[in-house]
Amino acid sequence: MTIPSLPDLHAIGASQQPTYLDRAAVDAAVAELGARPPLVFAGECDDLKARIADVAQGRAFLLQAGDCAETFDSVTAVNIRNSLRVQLSMAVVLQYAAQVPVVKVGRIAGQYAKPRSNDDETREGVTLPSYRGDAVNRLAFTPEGRAHDPHRLVEVYNLSAATLNLVRAFVQGGFADLRTVHSWNSDFVRNSRVEARYEALSAEIERALAFMVTCGVSDDALKVVHYYASHEALLLEYEHALARIDSRTGQPYGTSGHMLWIGERTRQIDGAHVELLSRLRNPIGIKVGPSVAASDLRALVEKLDPDNEPGRLTLITRLGAKKVRDALPAIIETVQATGRTPAWVCDPMHGNTFATDNGYKTRAFPVIWDEVDGFFDVHRELGTWPGGVHLELTGNDVTECVGGVGELAEADLAHRYETACDPRLNRNQGLELAFYLAERLNE
Ligand code: PEP
Ligand code: MN
User: Can you tell me which residues the record assigns to a coiled coil (predicted)?
Assistant: First the structure.
């Protein structure tokens, strides 16, 4: 398998690409990226693929979560720690409930490029290019801010490396110790008005941990977790520059992250994104919205997974709470008819976004939950495994989604609305979702 050249990919045609004016600067950025070491190793991608194969077979559950859009300014120790903290906390609750390993994958260390519905944005009569993520331009609504700057690709690489470095240190250095993680959950249950049944679950986990300790279980399995990085593989220049041949196997891998996914807007069967990812050996996610045609879905899974390889595909459905119960069965049946068993994952975020009267893009916790609930109902009905969730989430106490334990109202959104793109669940909303999920996993 070879990696197609960048000009060949551009000749195929790709949607959602930046319009760079300075070709020499693009070439320089691509050359610099091409000379840098990989961010992840192919062997790690294979490990993740094996874990996702377990998800597909109903032997594990996937928690994929993180920012909608990472920003350069958000790369701080506090943000990374808080994000990991909430994800690991949720994973403990889910793992206890499901009694299967939870595969932890962040939308992290590379999630800097955003597809947009409109190329331009108009404010008070002024029209400028839309914000496409810090990998492309800046949020600031000025002509300089919104100009597409190829040097930012190098910054993405550097900040992804810094993020991964801290993440690796955290998950191996004792931060992820199961007992510490569980004590964060106990705090949540104590300090929030969650229902008594969550207290019971939390207390049960506490007893299980205490029992293990009295048995003398104190090995590394309690202290070290496996955590992987993922992002949408959107920018051809960046992903191509980090596509490398693995020296062990001679196979091409994307080394910008362990798992790469193709977004709802870039999954054209004859487009460059599908072409590039079809050549890389990483585990691949495909976002699937309600308008997908059965013939496209069939062609996509066949092109991206020609060998029916375990763990290769994760289908991330984002159908909306109103449509999930009607649309999901046909999607599952279409894929099953190809003979493939992908990991099925629910993204309850992207089909449920709306604008409030006071001008915020938000999502409502009960509606997010309704889509997850519908996802479980359909999979239980069809006898397939509801393999995981894909969430936009932060470890900080932001006010971007309404509802949940804190009963955030639309009027509260102004308080801490910090996302550069889509609204994220805050820490308490994330944990609450984990406790809800625990009940469905426990059925
Ligand atoms: C996203 O995951 O942030 C995103 C843009 O999703 P989708 O491609 O499903 O719209
Ligand atoms: Mn998003």
Answer: none
Closest ligand 1 atom to the C-alpha of 68? 3
pLDDT in tens, 110-146: 999 999 999 999 999 999 999 999 999 999 999 999 9
The answer to whether residues 281 and 45 touch, using CB atoms and an 8 Å cutoff, is yes
Return the ∠ at Cα 350 (arms to 347 and 354), rounded to 5°: 140
Q: What spacing in Å lies between the alpha carbon of 377 and ligand 1's midpoint?
A: 23
For atom 4 of ligand 1, the residue with the nearest CA is 263
**Residue 356 clears pLDDT 90, i.e. is over it:** yes
The structure tokens listed for 6 are 């960048």
Please state the ipTM of this predicted complex. Answer: 0.99
The tens digit of pLDDT for each residue in 238-285 reads: 999 999 999 999 999 999 999 999 999 999 999 999 999 999 999 999
The CA distance from 154 to 168, in Å, is: 21
Give dist(CA 58, CA 54) in Å, integer: 6
- From the CB of 437, is ligand 1 less than 6 Å away? no
Answer whether 287 contacts ligand 1 (Cβ < 6 A): yes
Q: Reduced to 3 states, what is the DSSP secondary structure of residue 292?
A: coil
**Alpha helices, H only, 342-421:** 365-382
Question: Minimal CA–CA distance to 438: which of 188, 256, 217?
Answer: 188
